[in-house]
Records
---
Amino acid sequence: MTNVDSEDPATEVTGVAGTAAAAPVAEVPAPIRPDGLRRALPWAVGLLALAAGFGLQTQLYTGQERTVTTVFMFVGLAAAWNLLGGYTGYASFGQVGFFGLGGYATVVVMVHAHLSFWLALPVAAVVAGGFAALVGWPLLRLRGHYFAVATLGVAEGLREVMTNLPRLTGGGAGITIPTVGPEAPTRWLGNDGFYVLFLLLAAFVVATAGIVASTPAGYALRAIHQDEEAAAAMGINTTVAKTLVFAGSAALTGMIGAAYAFQQVTIYPERLFDVDITVLMVVMVVLGGSGTILGPVLGAIAVAYASEWLRQHFTAGHTFVLGALIILAVILLPQGFTNYVRDATKSRRFSLLENVRRYRL
Amino acid sequence: MTQLVQAGLYGLLQGCMLGLIAVGFSLVWGVMNVVNLAHGAFVVVGAYVAFELHDLFGLDPFLGSVPAALALFVFGYLTQRYMINLVVNAPIFITLLLTFGLQLLLVNGLILVFTADYRSVPTRYAADSLVLPGDVRLPLGRLIAALIAVGLTVALGYLMRRTRTGLAILATGMDRGAARLMGIRARHVYALTFGIAAALAGGAGAAVGAVSTFSPADAGRFTLFSFVAAVLGGLGNTSGALLGGLVLGLVEGIGGQLLPGTLVNALAFAVLVVVLAIRPQGIAGRAFYASRVEA
């Protein structure tokens, strides 16, 4: 599950690439990879965490179970956002569009075609991923804020389109997926069922991220993040790499959206295309540490838990406090928790105040 | 036909206000490379300042836009100086998140103080309208608001091009390192820029309060409109942002007549995405930051 060490090979690889460019005759060393045990360890930890997730279920009462299910959902969403935003540095602020698209693909499959949810899940992934590939092709040429705003526009536009197709989506009034009785294509899974579903989805997304990060594809993405022109010069087809990872990230998000739609039963465009969901993903990834496997997981758990705790203890002003916490966390830990810990243990500098000076004007 | 002219006129007046809101947003984006997600919240805060002043002293909301702008200038200056400046060199999503946190803080603070009810600041004349030939009506309040918007945008253009402060802002936006070497205090200039943007938003907010209803929940909508208008006009280009606002208002006004439901919003976002993909420098021409490589 964790592969924090993979940062080192990444920098080494670019270093190697640099010398290779200077002296093309120099022998090309074998790809740098952690040896067997170090490669297996993160996966073992991941499996243990998955088992712990199943174990935890037996200890929870219903209310807690729903909360933890939401946490799992955000773990999956944050890890999916991190694939593009963390590794390549392209901040998609329209990620919720793919979430909603997955949800509405489920509606079409289950309500209009009367087919099983288990078919809707892959369909949602294909629809969201395909749509992302389609819009990603032109939009991924944009950088920085331009890309962020363009994706935001795509998501907002999608919401408006869904709101204005009442025959297909029920419009603003929402649509209900039949989950009980004879006309239900798939029975509602129950709290226990959704707990397992979201746990497995989260594990799947995190495992996908782990695989991508430890293969040459991951190095290519990080190279794009550090210097796109240099990456292209080294023979990485940046357009294809970016589009593929954008589509992959969207497909995973779409699957989670499909599961969410089924769990909620009645869905509205306002809820499924809520900008706050995108922002929460970004908050989680940034606070946890972008570009790592563990970061988004920790960030999602921390933020989702904090948000839930605040909701219970400060009913009126919980969003107010959440806003203050985001500001504080962003100023104190702009590079994210895992990156901070890694740098701090290396350099033996733990001062948060020193950390604040990093990006100060 | 009358209906279309009416809708177009209405859209243009509305567009002037959207333009004024977008001008500050565009300025901050162009000079500091910060996308201020709290910009819409500043507009709403301005509206509430005007509302309170009217409530307490019976101050006319259009006059109230002056104290609203002053209050937001101070708030914006301090926010940039002591908060955003701390992370201004960080990757882009850091500043996005910071301003989003600020937006949550402001909007929910307003909800706690004023509740989420819709309000408006009443005046005796804003609802009156001038009847033009062809039975087209020109609402007086919106006309005043639009005139204020155009006047402030022109004033900002003058400030940016003709005064030392404005030139310092432009210089810092073009090359911060070089500007600092010339003795410009970048921290102060950044804070000033953000203060000016917040002041424009606050002043616009007071005018919004006079001509329509508002609630804290509108903040996100204003931010999105600023996005679209700023992108349409070309970033950092102040008169471009006004133009972008006019185009947006016109599209919303006339499109709202021709298209069913709220499909006109989808159209606005489609325009945004297409303009970004094809002409990132905006329809108005050269943005002063088109060549910047963003990190």
---
Amino acid sequence: MQFERKDILDIESLSAEEITFILDTADRMKEISKRPVKKVPTLRGKTVVLFFYEPSTRTRSSFEIAAKRLSADSLSISSSSSSILKGETLADTARNLEAMNPDVIIIRHYSAGAPHMLARLLKTSIINAGDGMHEHPTQALLDLMTVREKKGSIRDLRIAIIGDISHSRVARSDILGFTKMGADVVVGGPLTMIPAGIESLGASVAVNSDDAVHGADVIIMLRIQKERQQSFLYPSDREYSKVFGLNPERLKKAKKDVLIMHPGPINRGVEISSEIADGPYSIILEQVTNGVSVRMALLFLVAGGVRNVDTD
Amino acid sequence: MLTLIKGGRVVDPGNLDGIMDILIDDDRIIEVVPSGKSGKSGSGLLKRRTPDRIIDASGMIVAPGLIDMHVHLREPGQEYKETIETGTLAAACGGFTAVCAMPNTMPVNDNRQITEYILKRSREAGNAKVYPVAAISKDLEGTSLCEYGDLKEAGAIALSDDGNPVSNSRMMRRAMEYARGFGLPIISHCEVKELSAGGVMNEGAVATRMGLAGIPNAAESIMVMRDIALCELTGAHLHIAHVSTHESVNAIREAKRKGLPVTAETAPHYFILTDDAVSGYDTNAKMNPPLRSDFDRKAVREGLADGTIDVIASDHAPHSSIEKDIEFDFAANGIVGLETSVSLSLKLVEDRVIGVPALIEKMSKNPARILGIEKNIKIGSIADITIIDPEAVYTVDSGGFRSLGRNTPFNGWKMKGKVVLTMVGGKTVFENILRH
């Protein structure tokens, strides 16, 4: 197939066929990172701007490494303060960036829909590196890649996602991605963290963590944010860990060959016990490795693929 | 000056509904007779005098002047969003002979000087009339009462902290008691801030899919129920602003059944749109209260049909692109409504929710009754008249609005039914008769 997208904004807008194509491309990219000289000239002369309105270590370094391995020039801009406080709007900042002719802008923003706004305004390709509570499409793609690599196929797997679904863009992208690829997704966590109408994304809701984990092929644990206690979402880490955390006892309810995933950073002893995070079922670090491959694939597809050769 | 409005369907609910001629001498209606008879029977005025102007209203609806009782004119303080002049011109174009100006200006209309300033500026503009609504509490802070006696004397017609709820129940109780002594209705913006905090749209599947924080229906309905309880306690006239949820409609219906002095309004967007309109992060679909579910939209329509909701008011809230062309989370709440309200409300007639007379009641007679003013088409009345062509078809072009605000989710919509003439005190303040 031909990949015709200018932007990668969310999993919602991608078809199963496009997702498969991205994963296939990522699989081929993976080999580059294993070479002694980890660099190909594919995106030589292309400029990639990383535009991060939120702190990030993993995603940002992953994108940056991906760009460098494809020989693109990358530039990283971060802004911890809101565009409103700075006095320049996001649109103005982005127009200024575009005036310098970058090929791709990778944006992380604390506000849902910010990448979509840029995609409408700019001719430059936009990749969403996480927007508010909305989506984190590259995380879902690397999760899909990792599961497909381990299980051969995603179809008919039972995927459990446990934690603060309400505030999680990873949960939204994973629910959409895994269901599009034919898996069954069940979400679990305190009911204060299960948003209204989550079923409309394709997930079912488990009443408790044991039910969520029951028969799971893959368990994705989400980071619990301690400041949520102030919004009355959960009473204490102690109770959270006991009732909703993943420990060896609870893990027995899952399939024997279960995979444990986590988008990081992990809170050891809260949502996941150390035995499990470091144990044989954990593929948390493989997720990180595949993150580079997925991001190389996306940069290649939006900046180096057929689309840019065409006179569009 | 003698004006004859000829051959229109004159709809003055509770008084008239028929093909009539209206004769206007300067600012007053001097004759209302079945069409074609004005020359022969009646007062026979036309035998002696030829009208200076004849307006052919055949096929049109001729209504007592419409009132939009929920409008933000932004002056003083935010004249880049709207001025009293542009806002009242937009009102005239939208068929409104009068508007109520909400007090959340800068400074707030919580004292005589601001009320008088608003009235002075509206007289100078000479478009639609303006009835200032003064604040319930000083600076809209919900902590101390304004001087209702002085404000009423200056020309305030009602009281509201619109934009903010009065969160303190004791303060609201006293405000209602005190206002009752002056015969001023309390217009309540119902919102429990602790429940709406952080929310930017309706809570539900759409918000969840878009990753936006939601505002539950209960944020509105809890305060509607509280205010109804306070209305029962105090006997004050309570008017619930911009009803958006089915729970609120049910609570108001029940309060009316009990005979409490409660009235209510909704805005066209709550009976036309649902929270689906937010898809694509359209900040022109962001307002407070937020667009709700289809179930709520249906309940609002039922409330309009059975009389639970007395009034259609636009909650005209002009903003500039500075407040709207930004991230959805930070965009200002509100949309302009004056120039689309009548056409959108006519969809209720097209959808057989209410008939034309009920529509005129909700856009003219009921707001007038609530505000304690008169809007009639009868001999001796001030000639405040709106003429609507129910068959005219057009496309909304926000670029052509007289309002400075362009923030509407209805740009590009095909509409049927259009205001063609607005007359305030016998003076035509807007005219756009397309036919012939």
